[in-house]
């Protein structure tokens, strides 16, 4: 490598990461093909994907200018915890396949950029053909499910008993799929609508797998004093031969960004519950003068610290 090549490589490495003033990793720019979600930067490694969980945080469909330091590493570690439970059969009895290969920074990537900011926040994952529906499981009545129940007495075509209160536990978990929106909100749909789009056999398999994962994960969490109110899963088809393709779970799984976690000792139906997530951020934004139609404001240091602590508390109770 000549001196010009070395200079070019050093320059690209120094431009690979963008942090905010609090030290949160807001963006990665590795010299690889990239697409960005609200939280994750996804790179094409050829046969596999490199999924980087940044410290970005979103609210009301906006990515905020402030991040939550360490959040991405916690999400990655929590997903790894649940994927390990699938591998050892604690979740799904050995029937659940997933996309995670490794949480180590690949050597090829470490040669391109300084690997230190990536450590603890990456997943090397199998490529899969994504099923275009979110697989939502609800064990308690909250969020969009609570609003739908108040309007019609049902959620996504699932009729529920009259007289339920906000955050009541359901008699048994229900499967309530939604579309996957590229921007804005996903749309809740009935199982029948999902079956029309994905096929009845695929949809039935996804419902069975989703309920299985939720019930096993909810039992594990309950042993640690945590209630999983609801969660959403993403699945994809994996395999080169169409005849041998199988459904595997992809993306993050059972994290505070994809699930609603409550403390069992604080649980009281009939009102909203404190969650182990970005609740402090949402409440501060609602109380601010932000109109939710323009670029959002930076978060105060106190809100960032409280939010980081809440994510950490949920992680420690579940995984620690």
Automatic annotation (TrEMBL):
Sections of the chain in a coiled coil: none
Pathway linked to the protein: Purine metabolism; IMP biosynthesis via de novo pathway; 5-amino-1-(5-phospho-D-ribosyl)imidazole-4-carboxamide from 5-amino-1-(5-phospho-D-ribosyl)imidazole-4-carboxylate: step 1/2
Residue stretches making up the SAICAR synthetase/ADE2 N-terminal domain: 36-295
Catalytic reaction(s) noted: 5-amino-1-(5-phospho-D-ribosyl)imidazole-4-carboxylate + L-aspartate + ATP = (2S)-2-[5-amino-1-(5-phospho-beta-D-ribosyl)imidazole-4-carboxamido]succinate + ADP + phosphate + 2 H(+)
Family annotation (InterPro entries): SAICAR_synt/ADE2_N, SAICAR_synth, SAICAR_synthetase_CS
Uppermost EC category: ligase
UniProt keyword list: ATP-binding, Ligase, Nucleotide-binding, Purine biosynthesis
Family the entry assigns: Belongs to the SAICAR synthetase family.
Annotated protein name in UniProt: Phosphoribosylaminoimidazole-succinocarboxamide synthase
Origin organism lineage: Bacteria, Pseudomonadati, Planctomycetota, Planctomycetia, Pirellulales
């Amino acid at each position: 490598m000549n001196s010009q090549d070395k200079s070019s490589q050093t320059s690209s490495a120094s431009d690979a990461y963008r942090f905010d003033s609090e030290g949160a990793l807001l963006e990665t720019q590795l010299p690889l093909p990239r697409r960005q979600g609200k939280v994750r930067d996804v790179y094409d490694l050829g046969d596999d994907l490199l999924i980087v969980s940044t410290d970005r945080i979103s609210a009301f469909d906006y990515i905020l200018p402030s991040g939550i330091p360490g959040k991405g590493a916690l999400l990655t570690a929590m997903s790894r915890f649940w994927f390990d439970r699938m591998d050892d059969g604690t979740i799904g009895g050995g029937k659940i396949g997933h996309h995670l290969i490794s949480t180590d920074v690949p050597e090829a990537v470490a040669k391109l950029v300084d690997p230190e900011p990536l450590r603890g926040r990456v997943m090397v994952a199998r490529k899969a053909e994504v099923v275009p529906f979110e697989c939502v499981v609800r064990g308690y009545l909250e969020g969009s499910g609570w609003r739908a129940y108040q309007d019609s007495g049902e959620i996504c075509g699932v009729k529920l008993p009259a007289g339920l209160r906000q955050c009541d536990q359901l008699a048994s978990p229900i499967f309530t799929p939604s579309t996957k929106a590229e921007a804005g909100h996903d749309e809740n749909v009935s199982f029948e609508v999902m079956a029309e789009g994905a096929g009845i056999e695929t949809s039935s398999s996804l419902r069975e797998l989703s309920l299985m994962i939720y019930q096993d994960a909810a039992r594990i969490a309950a042993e640690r004093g945590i209630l999983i109110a609801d969660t959403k899963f993403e699945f994809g088809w994996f395999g080169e031969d169409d005849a041998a393709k199988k459904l595997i779970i992809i993306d993050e799984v059972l994290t505070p960004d994809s699930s609603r976690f409550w403390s069992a000792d604080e649980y009281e139906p009939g009102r909203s519950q404190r969650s182990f997530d970005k609740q402090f951020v949402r409440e501060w934004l609602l109380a601010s003068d932000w109109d939710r139609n323009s670029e959002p404001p930076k978060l105060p240091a106190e809100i960032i610290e409280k939010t980081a602590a809440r994510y950490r508390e949920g992680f420690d109770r579940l995984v620690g």
